[in-house]
Amino acid sequence: MNGSALKPAMLARLVYLDQCLTWRGQVNRKDLIERFGISSPQAAIDFREYLERVAEPKPSYDTVRKCYVADREHVGLPIPHDTGSPDELIAGAAEDEFSRLPSPVRQCPPLIMRQLYQAIEQRLKIELDYVSMSSGLRLNQWIAPAHFASDGERLHVRAWSFHHQGWRDYLPVRVLPESSFSAAPIDEELPRDADWEDLIEIRLRPLSGLSDAQKAAVRLEYGFTEDALSFQVRKSLEFYIERRWGLNRPGARLERC
């Protein structure tokens, strides 16, 4: 059964019911009403629709707690949908009992993103002022942006540097807003960016010094069951793997094979 016959608004509410049952194990009308601002009769209709569509074993109603409770073998809706984030679902229910460390706010002015995006879209080179963390210097240079990428924490732009005569990663947040952003057509053939085009395999395994029980716990924590976790990344992003996965640090749980 698919969700094609459902209106988008109702589908969103049914998906939310499924997310609550998946991560919290319970849900009631109040959850729907507070989340979507609907009436109690509409919430009742949504629950009936959900109970008709959800796969066996279906949730049961707890008359004492006055909520639907998920079965231990809960499967959920038999339609493709976002299962949601446990952080968000649990935090929304726990209120003052949930605590979260703040994340760094890594944003850059929209003006800078627009200039970089338009340079890629129109295949232009662009002049900007960039602060290097290695030298601490403010460098005026021309670059030819080609791709955007993310290391999971920050946005990067892959660009040809006419100053360094090579492909490099730039952080848009380090581009100074007072840059000229002068643009011009790229009037030469740029070299192949092999580090961007070539994919490499990354293989991670539980730290060799851990016990078998600890290794099993690490595999469960990182969501793999084989001896090693394997995935492909662009070679230009390999540098960020160590930081992103906490390798070679005190308390590290994973190491490269």
Automatic annotation (TrEMBL):
InterPro entries for the chain: CapW_CTD (IPR059020), WHD_CapW (IPR059019), WYL_dom (IPR026881)
DNA-binding transcriptional repressor CapW C-terminal dimerisation domain ranges (all copies): 200-253
Domain WYL: 113-170
Listed Pfam families: BrxR_CTD, WHD_BrxR, WYL
Positions of the DNA-binding transcriptional repressor CapW winged helix-turn-helix domain: 11-73
Protein name: WYL domain-containing protein
Record organism: Aurantiacibacter xanthus
Lineage, highest ranks first: Bacteria, Pseudomonadati, Pseudomonadota, Alphaproteobacteria, Sphingomonadales
